[in-house]
């Protein structure tokens, strides 16, 4: 049962946490768990699924931060984490995702360190950014403390 290449379990009212044994699916290309009631953290073991081209975990109740191990998914073309309860910084390891074309992080409480050279390279490496919604965090001493922190974002890249 570990030789799946595509596993779609979206819109099935699945609940609980994402099981760690999902990391045994070493040859999986597409993993779709969107539109369920999954909760807890995104397992770091997902970073071991280096053959993944698409990972869909959106519209669940996932919380905590995005694990930096997802930056190991160098074959990833699409990553959907929309509408969860994720918070914190987008990992700088996302600069390793050189094949990424679609990144959807809307509907979370995430921020990005724009000053990070890896992230700047990653954003500038793409030829066309179709949508990028980012509100920058301004230090209180700059006099703009009323601006919200960074809200991140859906980026679609196109060659």
Automatic annotation (TrEMBL):
Any GO CC annotation of this UniProt entry: membrane
Pfam families: LRR_14
Compartment(s) of residence: Membrane
Record GO terms (molecular function): protein serine/threonine kinase activity
EC number of this enzyme: 2.7.11.1
EC main group: transferase
Boundaries of every Disease resistance R13L4/SHOC-2-like LRR domain copy: 8-107
Keyword annotations from UniProtKB, A to Z: Glycoprotein, Kinase, Leucine-rich repeat, Receptor, Repeat, Serine/threonine-protein kinase, Signal, Transferase
Membrane topology field: Single-pass type I membrane protein
Keyword Repeat on entry: yes
Tree of life domain: Eukaryota
InterPro entries: LRR_dom_sf, LRR_R13L4/SHOC2-like, Plant_RL_S/T_kinase
Protein name: Putative non-specific serine/threonine protein kinase
Source organism: Rosa chinensis
């Amino acid at each position: 049962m570990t030789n799946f290449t595509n596993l779609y379990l979206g819109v099935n009212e699945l609940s609980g946490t994402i099981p760690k044994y999902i990391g045994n699916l070493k040859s999986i290309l597409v993993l779709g768990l969107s539109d369920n009631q999954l909760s807890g953290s995104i397992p770091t073991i997902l970073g071991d699924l280096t053959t993944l081209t698409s990972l869909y975990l959106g519209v669940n109740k996932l919380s905590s931060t995005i694990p930096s191990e997802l930056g190991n998914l160098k074959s990833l073309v699409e990553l959907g984490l929309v509408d969860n309860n994720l918070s914190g910084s987008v990992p700088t390891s996302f600069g390793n995702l050189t094949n990424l074309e679609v990144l959807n992080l809307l509907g979370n409480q995430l921020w990005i360190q724009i000053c990070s050279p890896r992230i700047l390279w990653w954003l500038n490496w793409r030829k066309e950014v179709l949508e990028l919604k980012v509100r920058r965090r301004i230090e209180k001493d700059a006099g703009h403390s009323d601006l919200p922190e960074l809200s991140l974002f859906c980026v679609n890249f196109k060659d």
